[in-house]
Design goal:
alpha/beta; four-stranded parallel sheet; two-stranded parallel sheet; 8 strands; 17% strand; disordered C terminus
Length: 221
């Protein structure tokens, strides 16, 4: 039996190829220093990296980079990103990629203002998140839905744990918000198996989230 519920998605979504060129204007509303985060380098193969860097440079933005964010992102990547944000006084993070890049970037946004010694405390011990940097994304694969929620799942290889953290401060809206900009032209440049991976991820993520929701509800009962 379907129960009553409230569904609220405050994320502002831009869909279409033409929107990409206008996004640096929104980055500049957040500040001048941008941390660009991405994964293993597929955005360079598709030409998306060059296009984004051209737009950022033309807008006069100061860009720092963190590449190599893993599938099932690790806390070590979160720590690198958060440390870069602190070192260079980053104003906004631009995450280009799929769910893993976005998940890690959310925790980096929160880690920017974390004063503890171990970033893993943000995930496992649910250390308070008082503030988070704004987050904008260019989504390159539709799979996990991370571009529209306030949480992320992070892996710690040292403790052999994979845990999630969700917090309203990481909700994807201004001042901690996201812009989703899927670019249709990329479909012709992506590997043929990318849509297959997307479907597999989607089918595994939906029951996983349902199971987590049931566990949370049963814990509160």
């Amino acid at each position: 039996m379907l129960k009553d519920f409230i569904y609220d998605i405050p994320t502002k979504v831009y869909f279409g190829q033409g929107y990409l060129s206008e996004r640096p204007k929104e980055l500049k509303l957040c500040g001048n220093r941008v941390l660009l985060t991405y994964g293993g380098g597929s955005i360079k193969k598709t030409g998306l990296y060059d296009r984004i860097m051209t737009l950022l440079n033309e807008a006069g933005l100061e860009v720092y980079e963190l590449s190599g964010i893993e599938p099932n992102p690790r806390i070590t990547s979160v720590a690198k990103g958060a440390d870069l944000c602190k070192e260079h006084d980053i104003d906004v993070i631009l995450a280009v990629g799929g769910g893993s890049v976005i998940d890690a970037s959310k925790l980096m946004c929160a880690g920017r203002y974390f004063t503890g010694e171990d970033y893993w405390d943000l995930v496992k011990k649910k250390a308070p998140i008082e503030k988070a940097l704004p987050l904008i994304t260019v989504l390159t694969i539709a799979a996990t839905g991370s571009e529209m929620d306030p949480g992320g799942v992070i892996t710690n290889l040292d403790t052999r744990e994979k845990l999630g953290r969700s917090d309203p401060k990481m909700q994807l809206k201004y001042p901690s918000w996201i812009r989703r900009i899927p670019t249709p032209y990329l479909r012709t440049r992506q590997p043929a198996d990318r849509p297959i991976f997307s479907r597999i991820s989607l089918k595994s993520t939906l029951p996983e989230r349902k199971a987590c929701t049931c566990w949370i509800n049963s814990s509160k009962a």
